[in-house]
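Methods — Computational structure assignment.
A single polypeptide chain was analysed. Its primary sequence is given first, followed by the predicted tertiary structure written as structure tokens.
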Amino acid sequence: MPAADERTKLAVVDDESIGELTAVCDEKASAMMWFAVLVSMAPPILWGWTVGYTSPTFSVSADHVQPYDLNYLFDITSNQKTWLSSVPLLACAAGGLFAGRPVDRFGKKVMLVLANALYLIGYVVFRFTPVVVDGQKEGGDVDNTSAIVQLMVARALMGLAGGICTMSVPPYTAEIAPLRQRGVIGCAFQVGVNAGLCLVYGIGTGVHWDHLCEAAAGIAAAGLLASLALPESPQWLVNKGRRADAEKALRRLRTADSDIHTLLDNYTVAKTQSEEVLAAQGDVIGELLKYPRNKALALAVTLALCQQLSGVSVVMAYGGEIIGTVYPDPADANKYALIMQLLMFGMVMMASAIMPLFNRKTFLVAAEVGMLISYTLMIMYFFDKDAVPKEVVLIGYFAFPMTFSFGMGSIPWLALGELLHPRVRGLASAICTFIALGMGFVTVKTSDALRSALGGLGGMFCLYAGLCFGGLLFILFLLPETRDKSYNAIERELKGERKAAGYADLADETTA
């Protein structure tokens, strides 16, 4: 086993970050650093807001249409509603796929500004779409084509902003954070998304669609102005050869007694080692297609698909409507949907706290089993409403996001980074993210068709319960455990070689 110093150096190469080298530095976060983290949470908050926006703004059921519901004001059909709900996911997938190079070229701060600007434009365009039906709805067909197009464009802009923030916010917060706070600050993105969902449901219980747009535009405008005042990532500045600018940024992000020069040296070492890894990559696509890295990619893609095929996007997008089938009063429906988001938020925080204590598969199995139980309870109610109490569907509805957030919310992305070798991680991560968001789009877009074809919500939930069961089998019998294992150890396991993982495996990581 190598000495501690050797392990530290080798770990830096694999993590493509400054890793444990900053442990020898005396660094403390300044008020500006915490302000930067707070400001960088604005785009994730707005992404959660965008995903959940359709739930409180549409009618909870066809029999309880209100004059302030979007589907009434714009004469939106069921098919058009699914497009409005799902277009941001598709645009987010596209934005995330193509944002990698701009983030590297222009910097994380610039992309944060761009994400806020796109959110602002998107919500302003959405807000000022001319209402097709004003007041009482008159008989006859209504030509809402131009209004629907404008709403779609606005939602697509929001989705593009979501894709950009997924590629810029996590690395920005990681690169500005001191080593000891990096784990906590690394949860900022997911916390922001869940906070946005809670906010849109909470505020949506008391205000109409236009005021929700105005509130989101206000958050975007504040985030845009505040992000202009943020320092750029010191690591990005060093990577671009701008050491003097990196020093200025670090002096804003750290207290006066922090060891700035040693930190800069560590960033320089990280840049050199990252360049060595990239130079060794060669043909990335060829590397990705080689066995067993193609097998690791297949496992990562399947795990990402399991996350989306759980039906979580449908539950989040149509939470108010699902509860509306039980409690038709819009206020009650949105109140219960808000409770669901609060529970989801709480479970994300709890899972983040206990994540180091258990294996990855433990969280994933617990999530799949919990979702299966949740679906079973909801299926029981929707197939026999007369015999099954309403409380049963509420228990199932609340348990679903809690169990999803406990394991399937964040663990798949953590396991993805552990499964994939650094040489192919960038391309493979982009592929997995695009496929996951694309599948999220498919699940939301096809939800109405599935409900009609399968006899209602009960039939659709049966389908997703079956997919969850398939995901459980995949996790139990095909997915390897990745916690505390090096990339070489995982690759040997994928080849069928059962060699114990250890620090010794790191020694040949750079030559594998």
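Note: The CA atoms of residues 154 and 252 lie 36 Å apart.
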